[in-house]
Amino acid sequence: MKTLVVHCHPNPDSFNHALYRTALEALQPRHPVRAIDLYAEGFDPTLTREERIAYLDNPELIRERVKPHVEALLWAEHLVFVYPTWFHGPPSMLKGWLERVWLPGVAFLPAERKGQLAKSGMRHIRRLTVVTTGGSPRWFVMAIGDPGRRLFTRALRALFAWRCKVTWLQLHDMNAVTDHDRTHFIARVSRTLHNI
């Protein structure tokens, strides 16, 4: 399965970066893989005034500026996101990537009238995997409705193939986890991705 791995963390020495390396190592022997490390490449997540004005009427303006990312997204059948959960969602860099790459005519076709949903442009995505970490305890994340998970597994997932399979791997309580917890989670990520 053609797999796009998108990583978002500013520190190459972080645990999150170790998860990214683990994901690549587990996937590459079995699947064609493309990787995007947003911080390493210096991706610009800012949707400019010019781009916002052109967003619906001339999305090609932005598409040309992020062309390799659009091509990777259209190529993929499996999306893997590796990132830390900050303030109950993805880092702003990753949110900006979604805003600048998942464009009209790429990820969706805008609704034509009031009350109508946008049409998907990504039914080719058959699998979604998210590997994330977060500082809050699991019980608190559940109590507030798990907003980060809902973004990926409900809102974005709605654009994918009808039977798209979803795998969510999250390590909670990051500020208090032990070496054993981290080792166990890396092993879980490796095993899960290797078996896809």
Description:
The protein has 196 residues and is an alpha/beta fold. It has 9 helices and 7 strands, in the order E-H-E-H-H-H-H-E-H-E-E-E-H-H-E-H. The strands form 2 sheets. Strands 2-1-3-6-7 form a 5-stranded parallel β-sheet, with helices on both faces. The chain has a two-stranded antiparallel sheet with strand order 4-5. Helix 1 packs parallel to helix 9. The longest helix is centred in the C-terminal third of the chain and has 16 residues, at 179-194. Keywords: Oxidoreductase. GO terms for molecular function: NAD(P)H dehydrogenase (quinone) activity.
Helix content: 40-55%
Principal-axis shape equals globular
Structural class designation = alpha/beta
Tell me the number of helical segments per DSSP (H or I, 4 or more residues long).
9
**Averaging pLDDT over every residue, what do you get?**
95
- In percent terms, what proportion of residues is strand? 15-25%
Rg over alpha carbons = 17 Å
Stretches with pLDDT under 50, minimum 5 residues: none
Report the order of strands and helices.
Answer: EHEHHHHEHEEEHHEH
Question: Largest sheet at a glance?
Answer: 5 strands, parallel
Order of strands across the biggest sheet?
Answer: 2-1-3-6-7
Number of strands: 7
Q: Tell me the distance between the termini.
A: 9 Å
